[in-house]
UniProtKB/TrEMBL annotation:
Gene3D superfamilies listed in its UniProt record: P-loop containing nucleotide triphosphate hydrolases
The protein's name in its UniProt record: ATP-dependent DNA helicase
Domain of life of the source: Eukaryota
Organism: Durusdinium trenchii
Pfam families hit by this protein: AAA_30
Length: 1242
């Protein structure tokens, strides 16, 4: 495989997918074979029989040569994979071609095969066509296996699947050849074979039938009595089972079930991601091959047949497969075969291009097969006349590779294949100029072949012949019906091309996106982002392999000279909402596209994706083909998703320029973890933007700075909400704040273009219903259609979807709706796209999207997996629409709204108020409904916000080992420095610094501001019972140490409470307290660290530790590291130096044992003393008990850290022993005790 992929990539001069098109491990090959099978199905109809033969090596008949080889090599069966695989493959191939079909040269096709019957058959009966495929057992049906499909965990043995088309089934003696019953006692050998190989785990695949086997019409009906049905006995071919002694399975039908079953596995036996690998021409052959092998998991039989593909092909067929990539009319010059078709002298004027391809050979001549057949059958008519009247018989199978059936390009390719023409202009019709370009080819198909495209049954029949599922057929027919109706509206003049809106290349910008990114005036910090992104893209472009260049030595030397030596950096553009992150990235994206880079964008919501699609940029599907990937709203990514993205980049050779954009102070995703929790976040280069450019007024800026990291006080809340109630001057009638119809009507009169924003799905549905009722009360409705079930709040219980009932959507002219599914990305039929209803048509809802295009929204059928604990699936057909007057807060994150009416119906959501207000540009652009209180404006997680902007905190986090970090209660990246006091939109430095007034105002683990700078928290503390004395104690500490700070603290108290004087009096009455002590200085190194250092352990043995004395309840804090991946023994270290280093490590190991023994004795003594005090009732000993328990706890903590150190030492000793043995160094003599007496004494 290394040679095949490397040779195809470096020597063929073709794209990798095309160069490997004939390799059995390539998805391109199986796609071609599948299309050939589809063409065969269209030519001759349904298959008659589906047969599977699975060998069992222990009973399989082996040739004497194979037995001789096994005997001479002293091997048993299954121990000679190459010989046995080739032998079994040969037997299976000959059993199919000879025993079953009579298709080889040594059999007489009229008498000597299974499907000829015992006494011969009439002329014309027997095998009409057949297709077989060799596969490898992957263990998907293994009993009790829970592994996913397409994951190799089977034996890998080869087996064969066979489809057979038969003529005149009643004339064949099939009931005598195929059975589905358990043999009786009169045939003991056959009974043992059936009971040992034919009983299935689940079912037999045949209905119960007591009558004798017979053939009715073209359907084989087997006798399948009760005992065989209960035992799940699979049907079998008697001769095959007796001769090969293996498992045989036979299915027969007159419908498409056989083809569906056969095509279900018509793909390579590995993950579909391999198909994406072959699409990537920029990846190296090493990267592609490594990824293919890691996903492919081939077993020995499959590897053997890969090498023997010439002698034993995995695809067997009677017909000849011809691959044809269908061109698009009028796109470029037609290939030679199409030109030969137009000028062919022997084909009739009614012969289509597809029929011509089934008959033509090299040079535009009639295929040699038909020439021989004409001569063999002694046809009197001339060859040219006979070939034009000959029906298709499957001699030539055309694998026509076309675009997706859901695109208009497919219609153009179908037109070229199925409508006869002598020149391309014969396919054109002037009426097609009346329709938009997106419907041009469909319109031509309707005008040229209306009998097919307007007949649903004819279309369904063709889709069934292609083995399409019922769900796909229903959705495609709905899509096609909507497009046909829209095309007919243009043809009739009901619609005009000018009304279809601007083309895709000139779409107007959506809300929150600039009209033309290159014309933006960027600030200096935004320019720095653009420059950093451009440099990353430059490195990605330089790392491209010269696929498009001439594959010569100068091209490769040029690539080596320009290829970067380091990986492309990962960037993160961070900053508050509205700071211009998206604008800067858009400029970088447009610049990258202009330089030929392949750019992909990943967005968490459909609204953001729709915004980026306005710039004609692809949304992200896979990583490797892209030069630049932008991931928006990084704050909503979970830790696993972030790690997965970096892993994808690693698999792409770290070439792709990966850029994250977002703000960790905004709403998180559904997962509680974030990218900050990942150990790989330190690999990201952070680019910070600080200016809120979206915000256009000082008042709104003050509110955003306040809400970003703190909860407002009551006074601040009043200022924040002043003049913003909706409707204006009308308090809510409902105590819970739920709006009424009258409220919504008045709001829409005051602000007609407002967008309602709420937090929950139920609240969004209520506001959408009220807004639609307010807009269209008294107006006639177009009708009611089933809307998106996911928009129906009644389907959910506690956030879980337990029903799939469609949303009853009542439609009106000019009603605002939102599309909820991706059905046609090229024409704005995408999730999150806003639209206005124009009319309700027979096959869909006609809307005008925000991009100005007129499209028809058709119903979509989908299976919904319910979260009811039973895995129930419900199939529903509904229009992918929901009302567009209200949306959830998560869906507008990252967007700019012209006006917003906010209903925060759920309290205590961190960052909800900040995210909502940051969508506006001016303070006048938002209003609220309901009763908003301080709990609705919960502050964002301060630790996350600080960690996103603190490189020192990230470095500190990165330097902390996993075992210690996971046990800490402190959030990741927390700093203990107060951010200061916000006043008038500006931040003032904190005067309550711990180095100045001790611990009286230090920040806590959960807040980034001290208690006197965060007035909201100060007010909360004063409202709690018993906390006033705590604040008074802090005031006393300030007064003792710094009167200036004391007066500032009194002023802050006066802003939140009227009892400042009372608190001052309470502070004066207090004595000096512990809060007033100056902070203690931590020692540079503890005794434990010195002890380890004296043992010669630090920095010499490959394991590093630090034991520091902290000021918390824990006595020691130990930080340890794993061994580095590199060899700790230097290459130039001789045996003596290595032995000395190992003795040092051994000394530390022994010293650890002694320290542990001392601690054990101390613990035993303390526990004995505790037991004595427990029975001592004298009050004299009562004060000693808490101190004793605290001391005992500290010693036990030291024991736990020593246990951790012991595991590291064990690992170090084992590693050094292994390395010394690998290098052949003699092991030094070791003493049982430490060699250093001083260390032992300590």
């Amino acid at each position: 495989m290394w040679s095949s992929i490397g040779g195809a990539k470096n020597a063929s001069g073709l794209a990798l997918r095309e160069a490997l098109a004939n390799k059995p491990f390539s998805p391109e090959m199986w796609k071609t074979k599948h299309l050939a099978l589809v063409d065969l199905q269209k030519q001759i109809g349904w298959p008659s029989v589906f047969i599977t033969i699975s060998p069992y090596e222990w009973s399989m008949p082996y040739h004497s040569s194979v037995e001789d080889e096994l005997q001479k090599t002293l091997a048993a069966r299954l121990q000679a994979p190459a010989t046995e695989t080739l032998h079994i493959t040969h037997i299976l191939t000959q059993a199919v071609k000879g025993l079953l079909l009579g298709a080889n040269d040594g059999m007489k096709p009229q008498r000597e095969h299974v499907f000829a019957g015992h006494h011969g058959v009439a002329d014309g009966a027997g095998v009409r066509h057949w297709v077989a495929r060799l596969e490898f057992q992957d263990g998907k049906r293994k009993r009790g296996s829970a592994r996913p499909a397409q994951f190799y965990h089977g034996s890998g043995r080869v087996h064969v699947h066979l489809l057979v088309w038969l003529r005149d089934l009643p004339a064949l003696d099939l009931p005598a050849q195929i059975a589905a019953e358990l043999p009786g006692a009169d045939a003991p050998e056959m009974s043992d074979l059936v009971r040992g190989s034919q009983l299935d785990w689940e079912s037999s695949g045949w209905p119960r039938r007591e009558e004798p086997s017979d053939v009715k019409g073209n359907l084989l009906r087997l006798r399948h009595p009760q005992d065989a049905h209960a035992a799940h006995c699979r049907a079998y071919v008697v001769d095959v089972l007796q001769s090969l002694r293996c498992h045989v399975d036979v299915l027969a039908s007159d419908g498409r079930a056989l083809l569906l079953k056969y095509c279900a596995s018509y793909l390579p036996k590995f993950s579909d991601s391999f198909a994406q690998e072959l699409l990537n021409d920029q990846a190296t052959d090493f990267v592609v091959t490594r990824r293919v092998l890691s996903d492919y998991h081939p077993h020995q039989p499959e590897m053997v047949l890969q090498l023997a593909a010439q002698q034993h092909p995995q695809f067997l067929s009677h017909g000849f497969v011809k691959k044809f990539i269908v061109p698009l009319p009028w796109e470029k010059e037609m290939p030679q075969v199409v030109q030969d078709y137009m000028s062919s002298p022997w084909r009739s004027s009614s012969m289509s291009l597809l029929e011509y391809l089934r008959r033509v050979g090299a040079g535009g001549q009639i295929q040699q097969r038909y020439r021989r057949l004409h001569k063999l059958r002694k046809i009197d008519a001339p060859l040219e006349e006979w070939i034009n009247s000959l029906p298709a018989e499957g001699e030539i199978l055309v694998a026509a590779i076309a675009a997706s059936r859901t695109t208009d390009r497919y219609c153009g390719q179908w037109l070229l294949l199925n409508v006869p023409f002598r020149a391309l202009d014969d396919l054109w019709d002037e009426r097609a100029a009346r329709v938009p370009a997106a419907l041009k080819f469909l319109t031509l198909c309707l005008l040229k072949r209306p009998g097919f495209w307007k007949a649903p049954q004819a279309l369904r029949a063709e889709l069934e012949l292609e083995a399409s599922t019922e769900l796909y057929i229903e959705n495609f027919q709905a899509l096609l019906a909507s497009r046909i109706e829209l095309a007919e509206a243009f043809l009739s003049g009901e619609l005009n091309v000018d009304e279809s809106g601007p083309s895709l290349l000139s779409r107007p910008a959506l809300s929150g996106m600039q009209a033309s990114a290159p014309q933006l005036a960027l600030a200096s910090d935004q320019d720095f982002v653009v420059v950093a992104a451009r440099r990353a893209v430059d490195k990605a472009l330089q790392a491209r392999w010269p696929e498009e260049e001439d594959m010569d030595a100068p091209a490769w030397l040029s690539w080596v000279a320009r290829a970067p030596a380091t990986a492309t950096p990962v960037l993160a553009v961070l900053g508050p909402a509205g700071s211009g992150k998206s604008a800067a990235v858009e400029v970088a994206v447009q610049a990258a596209v202009g330089r030929g880079a392949h750019v992909g964008i990943a967005c968490p919501t459909g609204m953001l994706a729709s915004s980026y699609r306005a710039f004609k940029i692809e949304t992200l599907d896979m990583m490797e083909p892209y030069d630049m990937v932008v991931v928006d709203e990084v704050g909503q990514l979970s830790k696993d998703t972030f790690d997965r993205l970096l892993a994808l980049r690693d698999a792409a050779g770290r070439r792709t320029a990966l850029i994250f954009v977002g703000d960790f102070a905004q709403l998180r995703g559904m997962d509680p973890s974030t990218a900050l929790d990942s150990d790989r976040w330190v690999e990201v280069t952070k680019l910070h933007l600080h200016t809120m450019r979206r915000c256009k007024c000082a008042e709104l800026r003050w509110k955003l700075e306040l809400l970003r990291s703190a909860s407002p006080t009551s006074k601040q809340l009043r200022r924040l909400l002043r003049t913003h109630r909706a409707p204006q001057g009308v308090p809510p009638a409902d105590p819970a704040g739920q709006p009424t119809l009258e409220d919504i009507q008045q709001i829409l009169q005051e602000t007609p273009h407002t967008l309602f924003v709420t937090y929950t799905r139920a609240a969004a549905q209520l506001l959408n219903d009220l807004a639609a009722q307010a807009h269209f009360e008294g107006k006639p409705a177009l009708g009611t259609v089933p809307g998106d079930p996911e928009a129906n709040a009644s389907n959910y219980r506690a956030g879980a979807m337990v029903h799939a009932d469609p949303y009853p959507l009542q439609l009106f002219v000019h009603m605002r709706v939102t599309i909820t599914k991706n059905e046609d990305k090229e024409h704005s039929f995408v999730n999150g796209m806003g639209a206005w209803v124009r009319r309700l048509r027979r096959s869909g809802v006609e809307v005008v999207t925000d991009t100005g295009e007129v499209i028809l929204i058709h119903p979509v059928t989908r299976d919904y997996l319910l979260e009811d604990g039973e895995g129930t699936r419900e199939r529903r057909t509904a229009y992918p629409l929901r009302p567009g007057y209200c949306t959830n807060l998560h869906k507008v994150q990252g967007a700019t709204l012209q006006h917003m009416t906010l209903w925060l119906n759920t309290p205590f959501v961190p960052g909800a108020g900040y995210v909502a207000l940051s969508r506006a540009q001016h303070d006048r652009d938002w209003r609220y409904i309901g009763n908003l209180q301080r709990r609705h404006f919960a502050a964002c997680h301060a630790a996350a916000a600080i960690a996103a902007t603190s490189d020192s905190a990230e470095k500190k986090r990165a330097d902390t080992p996993h075992s210690i970090r996971d046990k800490r209660a402190v959030p990741s990246g927390m700093v203990r420095t107060c951010e200061g006091f916000i006043e008038g939109g500006a931040s003032r430095p904190c005067v309550f610094n711990s180095t100045r007034v001790g611990r009286a105002a230090q920040t806590s683990k959960a807040f980034s501001r001290c208690v006197f700078c965060d007035l909201g928290r100060l007010e909360d503390i004063l409202e709690k019972p018993g906390m006033r004395s705590n604040i008074a104690a802090r005031l006393r500490a300030f007064k003792v140490q710094d009167l200036e700070v004391f007066h500032v603290a009194l002023a802050r108290l006066g802003e939140v409470t009227a009892d400042a004087a009372e608190l001052e009096a309470l502070a004066d009455a207090m004595p000096d307290c512990a809060l007033g002590r100056p902070p203690r200085k931590r020692p540079a190194a503890s005794a434990g660290a010195e002890l380890v250092s004296r043992a010669g352990y630090r920095g010499r043995a490959g394991v590093f530790c630090r034991v520091d004395r902290g000021c918390s309840s824990a006595a020691f804090q130990l930080e340890t590291y794993r061994f580095p991946r590199t060899d700790p023994i230097a290459k130039d270290m001789d045996a003596a130096a290595a032995a000395q280093s190992f003795r040092t490590l051994w000394a530390a190991f022994c010293l650890h044992s002694q320290v542990a023994a001392v601690l054990d004795r101390i613990v035993a003594s303390l526990e004995a003393l505790e037991a004595v005090l427990a029975v001592e009732m004298s009050p004299l000993w009562a004060p000693l008990r808490p101190a004793l328990r605290a001391t005992l706890g500290r010693v036990r903590t030291m024991q736990r850290y020593l246990d951790l150190l012991r595991r590291r030492l064990d690992l170090g000793v084992e590693r050094w022993l292994r390395l010394m043995l690998d290098r052949g160094y003699p092991l030094p003599a070791l003493a049982a005790d430490p060699p250093d007496p001083a260390a032992e004494e300590d």
